[in-house]
Amino acid sequence: MIELDQHLRAVRDSAREEGAELRARALSIDADPDAMEEHFDSPAFATMRRAETPVGYREPSAAGAAPEAGGSCLQTVVAFIEISRGDAATALACPGPGLAGVMVRLLGDPAQQERFYTRLHGGRTWPFFAMTEPAHGSDAAAMETRFEPDGAGGWLLFGAKRFVGNGARGGVGVVFGRTGPSALSIRAALVELPSPGWSARRLETIGLRGACLSELAFDGVPVAGDMLLGGHLPTTQRGLWGALKTFNQVRLHVAAAAVGTALAMAEYVAEHRKGAPGTQLALARAEAARELVYRAAVRMDRDPRRGYLSSAAKLGATGMAVETARWASGAMGPAGLLEHPLLEKWTRDVGAFEFMDGTGNIQRLHVERGYRQGDADA
């Protein structure tokens, strides 16, 4: 069993307080995810934004107010389970660096990092991370979005992306595309909006409405030559290398969101339907999934290249969360979800975790491959 040290317990307790504030905003954001003005100054949003921003790029008033971005994977999942226990969809509505920030921190040079993080100052600008395409889903190597030379040292972006968080309201972000036919030609670029040739629309979703999942289209969007990320790195460490290195950890963030939401649902039923059959089993399964996510995070901190256990954790946690939602719906009685709108929202939200960072079938392939390569010695 993973024992949390004093620092991690403090991170957990602080994140639990943030989660409580996010929960208080959850139904409002779910009802109208476009009406964010009243939430911009949320203390929880400010804390999350600081924690995801490297110290050197934080707003002056926030310097030193949070741990260094890019801390251990275990620290991140400990915090995100508690935040998601408050409300995962509200956390995803936060205008903070998010996954785009991870990529800029990993692949960006100092000037690109400065440009990206400064644009987020004030907490009024959402970033976006655009990789998934309508026709190719999780098959990133088959992407068709392309960067074509503009004849003046820059690029023109053509193509489309789908299921992009905060894409329709984003102001700056990372877009993946090809500069040529090979896998090594897949690059990531920093794109700032507004820009000619860019169009976006929000997708109608049942769950995680605060995440503003969107579809994007590019028709000759200009990208300056110095906005391709990773130009200062060796050819093999640009583009997909950065994405693949990151996704093993992101997979655990999704698993943490699933565990936190499952814990919230089980605890809600325990509070509002005392003695409901299956409550202790639901709580025990969520706790077991949390332990698996913790173990996978420790493994990731030891060797970020080995993703077997993170795929297994994501697969198990998302399935457990969906089953917990089904149980909770029945445990509350025939009109339970009508009487308890917060629980009803969570039962919608959990379905989205299956599709984030690879579906269950994709994770099964990762697990099978990891097993054959000897990663199962974990």
Walk me through this protein's architecture.
Helix 3 (73-92) packs across helix 7. The chain has a four-stranded antiparallel β-sheet, with no helix packed on it. Strands 1-4-5 form a three-stranded mixed β-sheet, with helices on one face. The chain has helices spanning 6-31, 43-51, 73-92, 98-107, 110-119, 240-272, 279-302, 308-331, 336-339, 341-353, 360-372, and strands at residues 126-130, 146-149, 155-165, 170-178, 186-192, 198-202, 213-223. The chain is globular, with a radius of gyration of 20 Å. By secondary structure, it is of the alpha+beta class. Strand 2 and strand 3 (155-165) form a beta hairpin. The chain has three domains: 6-105; 126-237, Butyryl-CoA Dehydrogenase, subunit A, domain 2 (Beta Barrel), CATH 2.40.110; 242-377, Butyryl-CoA Dehydrogenase, subunit A, domain 3. Helix content is 49%, strand content 14%.
- Poorly predicted tracts of residues: none
Please, what is the average pLDDT? Answer: 92
The largest beta-sheet arranges its strands as: 2-3-7-6
Tell me what the CATH architecture of the largest domain is. Answer: Up-down Bundle
Tell me the number of helical segments per DSSP (H or I, 4 or more residues long): 11
Backbone structural class: alpha+beta
Overall domain count: 3
Distance between the termini: 13 Å
- Globally, the shape reads globular
Q: What level of helicity do the residues show?
A: 40-55%
**How many strands in all?**
7
- CATH homologous superfamily descriptor of the largest domain: Butyryl-CoA Dehydrogenase, subunit A, domain 3
Radius of gyration, whole Å: 20 Å
